[in-house]
Design goal:
By secondary structure, this protein is α/β, with parallel strands linked by helices. It contains eleven helices and 16 strands. Strand 4, helix 5 and strand 5 form a beta-alpha-beta unit. The longest helix is centred in the first third of the chain and has 18 residues.
Amino acid sequence: MLKEVFIFVAGATPQIITETIYALSQKDPPVYPHEIYIITTSTGKKIIKDTLVKKGILNELFTEYNIPPVTLKDDSFIVPKDENNRELDDIKDDRDNAIVGNCICSFIKEKAKEENSRLHCSIAGGRKTMSFYLGSALQLFGRQRDKLYHVLVSPEFEANPEFFYKPRKNRIIKTRDGKELHTKNAKIFLAELPFIRLGNKFFLSGKTFNELVTESQREIDSVFICPPLIVSLKDNTIRIGGDIEFSLQPSHLALYTALLSIKLTCQHNGPCENCNDCYPVISKAGPDRALLDLMNRYYRKIKPFTDEKMSKTWNDPSLLRQYISKINDQIEKHVKDEKVSMCYKIQACGSHGNKRYGIALDKNRISIE
């Protein structure tokens, strides 16, 4: 059974919490919270505790609609803290905004790691920037089952300090100007908001909201610029995206696959862009030993019944450079866009006579079958 996790951004209007819980309880089938988290400021925390907890309004809602009760504890409140570990009492400037964004992203990232949970996130309360950050965090880390909501209430009841949810029996509440309102006329609508789910699509190592956005944009750009690459040893083919497929000579494919394999086992955790840590050396003294071993391994998968003569010729760096030139020619022939072909071609770096060779494509877009 999924654990239903309700997450709110809220400030001086705790009504959005009870209104959202009420609305979800009225769905078919109803959705009841197992956990409740409220992202707010220290000021908002006090208002919410005084209103929903001390006055018992949250428990009244649970009792009236037979909702399994959830106790709001100290760790139910997520309050962003500054560099001195002090809770923010408001969001006043760029620094506060950055702190809030980082806090919300970090929290959603951790909750989205829970395999048996479903997140129900409400952006109806708090500062507008808080709502933005919660929605953005769910885009970055949300899974297919996670939900994003905005609760809408009849205008005359909206933000009324006496209205928290629609009770079963009609009550009469007053507006600030003394007008009487009948709760039976209240309408609460929960809008489920569609959003792009990037969770589990990319490896994101950034710590701050800005870093995560930059990484995500780079990953998205790479999807359109450089489609995935699949090497099929069985079929002796290279497939790029869904419409490019071509073959290489067995020795050429063995070299290309070996370079890809070295990239796949590279320990560098960040994006491969502008990184050549995994490029092996092909020098005047001869090729990198690990490269030759991998070439031999893949060549035997491509041509199982072969002798040692071919692999012995690979000790000649000039021969491998000829292979590289011919491989790149084939890639250029089949990938017409020069900018795209650079993702797949074998690149060289380093000093003459001691060059390193590798493929720029990010390892997350490489598969060897």
